[in-house]
What does this fold into?
Amino acid sequence: MAPLGRKMELLSMAEQEKDKKALYKDTLALPRTDFPMKASLVRTEPQVLARWNEMRLYQRMRKAREGKKKFVLHDGPPYANGHVHLGTALNKILKDFIVRSRFMAGFDAPYVPGWDCHGMPIEHQITKALGEGLAATPSVEIRRQCREYADKFVSVQRGEFIRLGVVGDWERPYLTMSHQYEAAILGALLDLVKAGYIYKGLRPIHWCATCRTALAEAEVEYGDHESHSIYVKFPVRPGDKRWGALGLGDLRNPHFMIWTTTPWTIPANLAIAVHPDLEYQLVEAGENTYVLLSDLVPDVLKAIGMPGEVKASRKGRELEGVVCRHPMYDRDSVVILAEYVTVDTGTGCVHTAPGFGADDFESGRKYGLDIYTPVDEAGRFTADVPRYAGANVFDANDPIAEELRASGALLARGRIMHSYPHCWRCKNPLIFRATEQWFQRIDHEGLRERLLSEIDGVKWIPPWGKDRIRNMVLTRPDWCLSRQRYWGVPIPAVYCAKCGEATLDARVVERAMKATAARGADVWFTDAIGTFLPDGFACAKCGGAEFKKEEDILDVWFDSSVSQRAVLEEDPKKDLTWPCDMYLEATDQHRGWFQVSLITAAATRGAAPYRAVLTHGLILDEKAKKMSKSLGNVIAPEKVIETYGADILRLLFASVDYTADIRFTKDMIGPLAESYRKVRNTIRYMLGNLHDFDAGKDAVPVESLLELDRFALSNFNMKARRIIKAYDAYEFFAVYHSFVELCAVDLSAFYFDVLKDRLYTARRNGPARRSAQTVLDHMLRTLLRLVAPILPFSAEEAWGYVPGAREESVHLTAFPSAEALAVDQSLLDEWRRVLAVRDEVLKPLEGLRKEKKIGQSLEATWGFAADGDISGFIDEVGRRGIWPEVTVTSGWMGRVSEPAPDALRHRSEAVEGLTIFVKRAPGAKCPRCWKYDEKIGNNAAHTDICPTCAEAIADKA
RNA sequence: GGACGGAUGGUGUAACGGUAGCACCGCGGGCUUAUACCCCGUCGCGCCAGAUCGGCGCCGUGCGCGGGUUCGAAUCCCGCUCCGUCCUCCA
It folds into this structure.
């Protein structure tokens, strides 16, 4: 241990050193800025929002591009129910990236957001709240409450979208429940009616006999239910030609055997379905022969308690067209083919009642069978059904089974527990029932082909979107437009009071439309039917003059399909265009909004309403499961915003490939916030070093820039171009990655690091420092603009600190033009080699550090030995005085023939024939610039600093 | 079941059919003139060596699996697995 006195002496020397340092520190141009390193986005973002609101940013942006080429992104309306979730946030943020970046690319990019207001989820909420009172509540009152509910969430969501930084016309969004919009819906319907697209047809739906209403899938609860289980035989009609052709004439008493859990549907049986590709066996049991699916023969024989003998077998396909006799009535039941026949339950011969089952209905359609639905609203058999007319269908199960047994048609009977649909409200079991609905034809006037050719003309991003929607359109059935609901736009059809004939008349629709334009769609419910009927209106079928109003409303998809008309076409300010430039929604909208909009537009306007369609994936949780409220795995955007800020969420959405589904996990946010900090500090560093720079006065012309600066500028411009190109292609993840890499690698790790010495120690207003500042100023202003669409809050905040003249908001500026981003390719090529050499120098410097011979690189110097091209190159670059700056060393020894004994040698692998020698730099450390110099003290005025520093402060101190 | 996607290190994202790269995280070191910042190294696991360059073992080796085409495939082809969307009156 050193004696005490010695220690004190050391201390005092250290302090002296410190004083000296402090003295010269004042002569340095260290970075200075008030732009905080710590973002505090949670606090600052609302302040930025307030400023935008005050300056009316959106309106200013529009004004700034008045008369410029438009880019119209048409907003797909989110549903006005509940709070914004991550998926909606992703959608709106991507839209905002586009609106802002198209604006900055020079387009006039209006954005009118909207909401989908009608529909089930809201009605569901309201009717649930009404409970028992629902039946006594007039429909207009239910609709009023729905409207109120929608209104509430429109304002909730509007606030949330604004908080995300989404810029747009929030003062006049469109609502599908506005009078104007509702009238536009009827306007579209009117066009379709006139053109002959609309017809009335049948469709099977879930029906609650107790509530006497149709149910949506969301209102259906699946729960255990004990059903009957019966096996019933259907005799093949004697002398049936198809059967005869099978060559099975010697089999006695051929029957098809079916199994069902709903005996009450037997009266409506019209067919028996078999699988075309499966094998069926003809099994003799007792007096009869039964057609059974081979795989199920043992099970069935066991169920009916009879031994059997296989006599023959046939493919299901061969059985098509065989005619059987109905076991209860003198009627046929024909054998048909269906893919949905399964091999795990029943007999492989499926009882088919087209009026009472989904699959049955489709099969019935396909085979042209009657959609026979002899059951009324209350679930009672109609007069059409002998012996059971008026009976509740569930009550009829036993008597029907009994009748079948009595006639010998019943082979076995039991009970079965299985999952069965129930009514969400009254909890009673549901029936499936075909009902009359309004449809839009898809094959009318060649519409389907026109849809397909329109699809070809649209740009789909990503490209496979085209195949997806194409295949959907290719096979989609007619569009069922009616819904047995309250909350929507009514279908202004009328029913003849006398004969029940339904009529959808253009004149009536037109009257309804006009009244709706003035007072909203409620008019259909409030006004007398007579006000909608033209003079002398009579039933086309029976001539009756008394009518009842249709109570069904339009599918809400029809509402949103009309937005291209209601919003784009009827825009009162003429900001928007038809068609628009882009629709942007999640991939599920290929079936949804993209498709319905296309159908309505093509049918009523003859073309697609969009030029391009961009789709994104859905948000998944960490286990790659879809985020949904029912799974309880949702992360609310607010959570992210409250903790990190909207810019972080936006950055995250920018960083991922949105074309695929996006897995969203908490641990994604940490690294993201880190990238953000990197970018923020890069910006802060530039701000700090421009505190005394005014481009107007101090900028250096490009040709006079130092070579390093010219290289950095060129390199920067090249990447800036790449980023702008990525914006043009809507590849925000490419923007993000290029941007972060540019900040971290090109700027922070190289240019800024190397530049420090010059910025801090060179003469404040000397050409060397001004040269660097000129480039920094260009970089800063460009960088902020490039990042503005993705980080609008931070970019704006930083913009406020940029010294010198600037626009009021970064969001009122444009991306730099190509000319402003000049690239000197030969310089870049040359510097690629410079940087390669630099990397080779850095390696042995690290070795010196490890040996504790140096701390900072400035404590070292280096030389080289080389042969070939590289040798001349390094010499040549050295003559321009570039090496010490680029490697941050004190001086440069040049070519070394005999390395000093204390030098560290590094033979390069990357650059052939190159060896680098590094060693501690000679001389003393200049307390001002920290470089080592042998000439310290040569200057009389400043005996303790190096000549360069003495020069730098000559006119100052 | 059908249509359409997705599957690269802890995370995100790249690579004309020819060395698996970049950023972030983590870990180690340096700087204190970007002062909770910045720089460098490392980053499948383990071991050895040492002025420096490094060496060895094991597993991975394209991280969904298995085949094929090719001198050579992450990249092209085929089959399968898992996940997602749609086919459903949720929007």
About this structure: Residues 732-761 of chain A form the longest helix (30 residues).
